[in-house]
Amino acid sequence: MRAFECKMCGECCYGKGGIIVEQEEIKRISRFLGIAPKVFLARFCEKRNGHLYLGTGPDGFCVFFDREKACLIHPVKPDICSLWPFYPANVNDKETWELAKDACPGINPDCSFEEFVRQSKK
C-alpha cells in the first residue's frame, strides 16, 4: 500500500508562506525557465526574515501553480515541495499527520501512521 500518490491538486501549493528556495534551486529553476537567476528572483521571489521564498499569485497559490496545468516547474520544483508530505512535522507527530491527511487527497486515508513513517524513510 502506497502512503502517498500526488494528485497534482495544488492543496499543498496554496497559501503564503513556506516555500524557501536555496541557491541551487534558483539556478535549476532559472535554467528550466530559460531566464537569468536575477530575473527569476525579481519576478518570482520575495525576501522575508533573511530567506528567499517563492511568491504567491493573487489567487493565493504559488506563482508556479496553474489550476489547469498544475505545477509549471514540476520537474525542477524546490526540494521542500518534493519532500511533501513526508515533512518532519508529519512524520514525527501523529496529530499533525492526521491534519495533513485531511488536507491532502494524495495521502492514502487507509494507510496507518506507522506505515506512513516507514515509507517516509525510503
What does this structure look like?
It is a single chain. This protein has one domain. α1 (23-33) crosses α2. The chain is 39% helix and 10% strand. Strands 1-2 form a two-stranded antiparallel sheet. A hairpin with a 2-residue loop joins β1 and β2 (51-54). The protein has helices spanning 23-33, 37-44, 79-83, 88-92, 94-103, 113-120; strands at residues 45-48, 51-54, 65-66, 70-71.
List the helices and strands and how they pair.
Elements: H1 23-33, H2 37-44, E1 45-48, E2 51-54, E3 65-66, E4 70-71, H3 79-83, H4 88-92, H5 94-103, H6 113-120
Antiparallel strand pairs: 1-2, 3-4
Helix pairs in contact: 1-2
| H/I helix tally | 6
Count of discrete domains: 1
**N-C termini distance:** 14 Å
Biggest sheet, open or closed, and with what strands and sense? Answer: 2 strands, antiparallel
Shape category: elongated
Low-confidence stretches: none
> Given the helix and strand composition, which structural class is it?
alpha+beta
Relative helix content: 25-40%
Q: What is the average per-residue confidence, as pLDDT, rounded to a whole number?
A: 94
- Which sequence of SSEs, written as H and E, runs from N to C? HHEEEEHHHH
In percent terms, what proportion of residues is strand? Answer: 5-15%
